[in-house]
C-alpha cells in the first residue's frame, strides 16, 4: 500500500487489523467505544462515508476536510496526524488495560489509498459494507450491526456518517441503490491480500 500523507480535501480508505491478527473487538462494548472515540477524535477533521468494524480489522472511507472547513488547531497539518494517532492510541490503551495485555494492538502502519468520488468510490462503499459476509462472519452483510450500512438504511443522522451525506440526496440515493443492487465482485477489493 501507498504510504501517502493525509491531505486536506482528499478521500482515503483506511483499514487496519490487529497485530498478529489478534481481535481488535472482543465484545459489543468495544465496537461502541471505538465509534465513540472516532466521533471524538476524527469526526472534527473528516467526513466519514462508510465504515465496517470486524473482530480483527476495520475499514473507513473518509475525506479529510478542506482547510476552510476546519477551525483552530485543526488547520495545522500536523494536528491531522495527531488526531489519528490519539484515536488509535487511546483505543489501544483501553484494550490493554481492560484485557490485561501490553504492546501494540494494531499491526504496523495502516494502509491508505486515495479514492475519488466516482464509480470506484461507490464500489469501495459496497466492498466495505459487504466485508462481514466476505469474511464469513455473517451470511448476509445487511444484518451486521457494526457497519454504516444500517445508518444508510435508517438515514441515521446520529451515526458517525457525515451529516452532509444525508443532506446530499443524489449521493445518498446513489449509495443506497448500489448497496441493494449488489453488483460488484467485492473480492477484487481485498486490501489485506489474505
Inertia-based shape = globular
Class derived from helix and strand content = alpha+beta
| The CATH homologous superfamily | Transposase IS200-like
Residue ranges: pLDDT <50 for 5 or more in a row?
none
| CATH A-level architecture | 2-Layer Sandwich
CATH topology: the name is Alpha-Beta Plaits
Distance between the termini: 14 Å
Radius of gyration: 16 Å
Counting DSSP H or I runs of 4 or more residues, the number of helices is 6
Give the mean pLDDT: 87
- Strand elements, count: 4
Order of H and E elements = EHEEHEHHHH
CATH C-level label: Alpha Beta
Please tell me the total number of domains.
1
The strand order across the widest sheet is 2-3-1-4
Query: In percent, how helical is the residue content?
Result: 25-40%
The percentage of residues in β strands lies in: 5-15%
What is the makeup of the main sheet?
A: 4 strands, antiparallel
Overall description:
The protein is α+β, with helices and mostly antiparallel strands and 194 residues long. It contains 6 helices and 4 strands; from the N terminus they run βαββαβαααα. It has a 4-stranded antiparallel β-sheet. The radius of gyration is 16 Å and the shape is globular. The mean pLDDT is 87.
